[in-house]
Input
Amino acid sequence: MSDMTASQVDPDELKRYAFSVWSFKQGEMVSLMIHIGDRLGLYQAMNGAGPLSAAELADRTGLKERWLLEWLRGQAAARLVNFLDGDRFELTPVGAAVLAEEQTSPAFAAGAFSGATPPATVDRLVDAFKTGIGVSYQDLGPNAAHRTERMLGPWTKRELLPNILPALDGVVHKLTEGATAADVGCGGGVALFTMAQAFPKSTFHGFDPSQHAIDRCQQKADELGLTNVKLHVAGGEALPVEPTYDFLITFDCIHDMTHPVQVIAAIRRAMKDDGTWLIKDIRSAADFKQNMRNPLLAMFYGFSVSACMSSALSEPGGAGLGTLGFNPEVAQRMVAEAGFGRFQEHDFQDPSNLYYEVRP
Ligand SMILES: C[S@@+](CC[C@H](N)C(=O)[O-])C[C@H]1O[C@@H](n2cnc3c(N)ncnc32)[C@H](O)[C@@H]1O
Output
């Protein structure tokens, strides 16, 4: 314990440190405001509208002016919208690219702000530091799949068909002709349904141990009237033991698994000898010092403790890789140990993820 009292520390350093701590609190509050703005369509309403007063935004949205004024002033204070004379506020084209244009902008981020960690989960996370046992995605509740989908889905929806699948050797041809594919750890099924709609001659199996995630997928399959999607409340450990799939994907989930080695071995067994496995996992390095160059690294550790590592330790003996744990070095080693011969890294300019094309 330090024997320095608060009055003895360098006052400037104290101020800087306290400011840095409070800026995380500010981030929490601004995150909530971004979520509210996203949910109410406020960024879309401001996109391309030029400077707007709260009254004008109220006219456009049917929402209450007083509430909008407070929200707009907060957004201006956070420098997310410009403040102009006459109490008017403007979302710039750059702001719109990050906060409004979900369908078209690779920089869209507002979906990632959907929903804070519920108090009951926080209690379980505090306990996990004592017991070692974390919270599975199923136990995070029905909202977890929805939140993941809002954060990860926009990129997948935009990039999968035009950029990612065509970069893989022969995969688009097989899916077009009619293949059997699996999305392991499919969550809410963004990739699953994007592919199922694009390749009607192929059949797509979605596997996830979370009943909530599969219920969400089932609802979408019914809404879309798709007959080429089969859903399984099961982890990757339960894949068929005979060679079944021409193509498998695991998107942002190997690092969440309690038993990734078993799942990777199961993928090898379930894949046909000329099959392809596409892994998407967090862009990180094995070396913590190297990762420290990432200015958003603390956020990734927050994701890890609250979701990824927690899920990966949700059973006794869990591997606990966590958000940054399945980096290219670990991925290459683990897939080689499972008997895969080919491993090719792809960088699709996804700011958070790398992609690995793996073949027997
Ligand atoms: C971060 S989410 C990713 C969901 C989806 N792939 C996406 O990109 O939106 C991780 C998912 O992995 C699933 N998961 C955890 N353990 C698993 C296992 N052993 N086998 C398959 N999926 C698993 C969780 O239930 C959760 O839905």
In short: The domain at 119-359 is CATH 3.40.50.150 (Rossmann fold). The two ends are 55 Å apart (CA to CA). The chain has two domains: 6-106, 119-359.
